[in-house]
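Sample pair:
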Amino acid sequence: MSDPAPVVYLLHGEDEFAIAQFVTDLESRLGDDSIASMNITRLDGRTCSQDELVSAVSVMPFLAERRLVELTHPLARISGKADQEKFQALLERVPPTTALLLIFDQPLKGSPKDGKHWLERWAEKNKGRVFERLFTLPKGPAMGQWIQKRAKDCGGQFTPQAAQLLASLVGDDPRMADQEIQKLLAYVNYERPVDPEDVYTITPETKKLEDFALVNALRSGRRREAMAALQKALQEDDPLQILGSIIYQFRLMLLARSVLDAGGSTEQVVQELGDHLNVRSYPARIAADQARRYPSPVLEKIYRYLLDVDTAIKTGEVDASLALNQLVTQLTSL
């Protein structure tokens, strides 16, 4: 005989997309939509009383072996050891006809004593009844691998290069990555692997990634590389658009530098740029990394110079392409 299914699911971590997929998979096992809908109860721990939770887990399933009770923010109204013990006693009374899902949007924080949360310690003592999983965000190379696996699960393929390119654009946001994967697979009609050119064509902000390459060459003094990137860009885009993108990148660096000068961390740069300019995690981290290479006075001098070039082009004082070439020469001489 197979082991009985868990009755309490402890789902925690920052990857809310993966948690949502896991919950959806459990829901799909309840049968067709009409049956499933009558066997799912969704509660919010911030407003749900313990009596309401007891009532929900005690209801018998309708034309199914089990029902689901999905509780978000499970510990919002629990404070103190007495509340914890009462909640644990409730968990131990959940009947086998119910699966109680405790859903947290962050990893459980352990105690200084043993590094474990009290719910994790309870789960270890009740292994036969509890399923626990930490859902961590895929980052760096892991995101590229995640994209390839997700594409395969959806019936398509990504080349490794395309997966890494998309990963660099979406950062550590699986939900955003999934949206782009669906669009790209539809674009190639699921008939061939998605390649980097498809990502450049379809995914937003790809041009900004190319701008990073130009700005990286400028800030590192790599004149030949910067000139090559500029000439390629001039074949495809308006000079003012290119200059605007460069100004945008240096503006991000200047703002990042101000956070760093105030004692802030990279994570604080990410939060600040995200809150005020809606900048995603990946480009915000790039800006923080680039900003560390310049003292604030130098960045301010560069930014004023870029604005002067912008004004000179718009007023017709200089030819736009010539001004950009001179800009590359000037910035790679710093």
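Residues 214 and 228 are 9 Å apart (CA to CA).
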